[in-house]
Amino acid sequence: MRLHHxxxxxxxxxxxxxxxxxxxxxITWWHAMEGVLGxxxxxxxxxxxxxxxxxxVKPVYKGSYSDNLxxxxxxxxxxxAPAITQVFEVGTATMMNARGAIYPxxxxxxxxxxxxxxxxxxxxxxxxxxxxxxxxxxxxxxxxTPVLYYNKxxxxxxxxxxxxxTWKAVGEAAHKLVESGASECGLTTAWPSWTQLENFSAIxxxxxxxxxxxxxxxxxxxxxxxxxxxxxxxxNLAEWQKSHAFEYGGRADxxxxxxxxxxxxxxxxxxxxxxxIQEAAKGKFTFGIAPLPYDAKAVxxxxxxxxxxxxxxxxxxxxxxVYRGVAKFLNFLSSPAIQADWxxxxxxxxxxxxxxxxLKSQGFYADNxxxxxxxxxxxxxxxxxxxxxxxLGNMPQIRNIIAEQLExxxxxxxxxxxxxxxxxxxxxxxxxxxxxxxxx
Amino acid sequence: xxxxxxxxxxxWLLLAPQLAxxxxxxxxxxxxxxxxAFYVQDAFGLGERFVGLANFQRVMASAEYWQxxxxxxLFSVLVAVGAMGLALLLAVLADRVMHGARLYxxxxxxxxxxxxxxxxxxxxxxxxxxxxVLTHALAGFGIHWDAQLNPGQALLLVVIASIWQxxxxxxxxxxxxxxxxxxxxxxxxxxxxxxxxxxxxGITLPLLSPTAFFLLVMNSVYVLFETFATIDNTTxxxxxxxxxxxxxxxxxxxxxxxxxxxxSAQSVLLMVLVGALTFVQFRYLERRVQY
Amino acid sequence: xxxxxxHLDRLTHLLLLLGVIVFGLPLWLALxxxxxxxxxxxxxxxxxxxxxxxxxxxxxxxxxxxxxxxVSALRLLGNSLVMALGIAIGKIAISLLAAYAIVFxxxxxxxxxxxxxxxxxxxxxEVRIVPTYGVVARFGLIDTYAGMILxxxxxxxxxxxxxxxxxxxxxxxxxxxxxxxxxxxxxLKDFVLPLSKTNLAxxxxxxxxxxxxxxxxxxxxxxxxxHATAVISLKNLVQSTDxxxxxxxxxxxxxxxxxxxxxxIIAMQRFFVRGLTDTEK
Lengths: 440, 291, 281
What we know:
By secondary structure, chain B is an all-alpha fold. Chain B has a single domain (about 65-290), classed as MetI-like (MetI-like fold), CATH 1.10.3720. Chain B has helices at about 10-35, 55-60, 65-95, 100-110, 115-125, 135-140, 150-180, 185-190, 195-225, 225-235, 245-255, 260-290, and strands at about 40, 50. A two-stranded antiparallel sheet of chain B has the order 1-2. By secondary structure, chain C is an all-alpha fold. Chain A: InterPro entries: Bact_solute-bd_prot1, SBP, SBP_1_CS.
């Protein structure tokens, strides 16, 4: 019968997977890098595999970040976890608190006698993946930060000379763009919570949550709704929405479309979107990149923004031999040559100072105007409690809740203050639930 | 019915495949759901704690759960009214025609084969903010379509996609029901001088009411479970939870928030709801058999 | 005989045609858009008529790996076919045996067995999705065809229908078989199966469409592109990160995805209607 064949097939597939580990030790690496990024990941693995013959790194594309985290968790529960898995920044708290499931990177490096210097990483990157006792738990890999993209043609048409540096200037520019008919919509955004709340808070030195945004413990609670500037910012966006000076573009990165099609003249999204936007704008309009605006009423000087992207986590349940290979590979991965190549190819920021210097001396930033905006913005000043990042449990769900409440503010159902307050209240329930689930 | 008597092991052998699959892939997960509903567990399964009814209390106390309940109910009503109304109209028409009845039936039943996910995608394409045909048509009437922000429009989008997909199902049943109505009954009424409208209201509708009731239940079941794919391909439950059904919430809490306790509690509540629906349906079917 | 009035007939046809057009519109627009180039679809309104690309978009999807997925549409459609056939044939096979045992044998716990199977009617896989994932993962069946199929055949719709159909077989049949000296297997093969052909075909149509159109379960169970189905690939196509959605490809993929089940409905219209009205009784 057909079913019988299927069982055979499944059995065969399992066999063929396990039998490839004959000569060299296989290291599985689950990732969520699709398309060209995925091909680049394969290239990096091939390069490592060719450089020695003890270990074979096998990258496996597992779908979106969320899919990969689901798959990793399920595989761990079934004792089949990969050696390395890529987890997005909002999954950091989940991984960090799964003490029995992860092999902290500092410990791995120490126990395998692999040279490892956490200070080689950019401070904003390092701090994001470092525990409160100063130990690095996962390996940074692809980091980005939100920037402002603007349509130069539309700006010229509206008679605006320079990209706006403050949110006040953004509002004026957006209204001017719409009123002059230079574009149908002024500003749109992707990743609304990340750009408009998390990074708004960091840049304007406002707390997003207590206990250094969760860096100092799982008892942190959301407080963005209590910051006057944050509430005013969302209220402004809601006002602008009425005249199309701002258009909410949906969750995740779907807002990008409104900029790419030329409908909106400004967009706040990840620096890693540069290549995609370039591709779509080709032959239609020229665009520029500027730092994410700040609120001049909240700070005199904008502070550093915080990162997005993902890091690599090492999972428990493998042999010492595998871990020696993992350490070797991660060491290879963070070398300046690999990192500089990866950053220049993808639009992610270089994560080590050495890689940054290398790109600089190669003239990459001179040749690619706009590419340096992200790294400059990330590295200005020293990150303080409001600027190390956001490390909260259940963060993917909290982002959903925030997006939901922002939608209510933007469509006029609720005033910003009320919508944000409800977002914080519901988010705090998630945090309490998380705290309870990891306390045993 | 007479049966094979002297075979003691044969029936078990025959039953074994189905019993095994049902035990492993139905009863085990269902029991697991029931158990997990009383525990709080971290995502990796590293530890768990018995919390009694706390998960249920948490679910019942959350405004989002009741919002999802409301959305599911409203969604069901809109799809049932829309799909059944259209299906009844088209079935009555298709029942009337003498020529091309078979062709009409095929041309009106094929949407049943469309996956709910595809239905969502196709309607989203027509309502696309940039190139959607309907977006532009509506703009002509001065209506600004933005399902990403407008809760009413978002719900309308998934309702329309669902009606499109579900109409054909209702159509098949109504047409079958209409064809079972004895022609003599209608003729007798016509001879008595009843107008076509009177005949429809007085004879056809009452005879179709069991079918309609059955379809009402089936449409609710459809909205409960099948529309997950439609929503996941269009509105993702937004904006502001306006299109988040009970199953979508269950999925979000289980796989995005990884809150196993809460999602299991919701599973159990959903089991009770579906159980009640099934019970109602069978009670009604029993009655119909007695007629 | 019903009273037919010419102008009323014309109105009937007109309304029916209108219905056919309205219900056909979404697919028609997908069909026309799929023959345009990416450039055509990036600005302006979706075209109502065919474009310059002909079947080029279809050829691209079928012959090259899809960006972001890494496998071609051929593979996706093949996976859908394996899943739809696996579910249809698997479900009918196990249900056939179980229903046969319940109807034609007397054994202890017979009623209990029937109810154990019957109760599965109440809980579709969506309700027990989280623990089902856990169970399938424990067997290492995530990302295998078996894992995609088995939880979906753990349901009693087919058993229930076949049980009713077997019970309505004439009593004389059984007597004739016994006179013939037929054992249980020969009775099934030579008497019961031939008489159940129509029911089996009807069940097959419904189960095939059910399997082909599955969404939530394969989304979770097939977490690598090698096992992704056509239906779940569409979301990847439309929600491609940082690029405009390639609608010309998404619509072409949508057309290819709906073609097999629509063809089944049209070709097996008689069994489809029968299957639909029977499975739900």
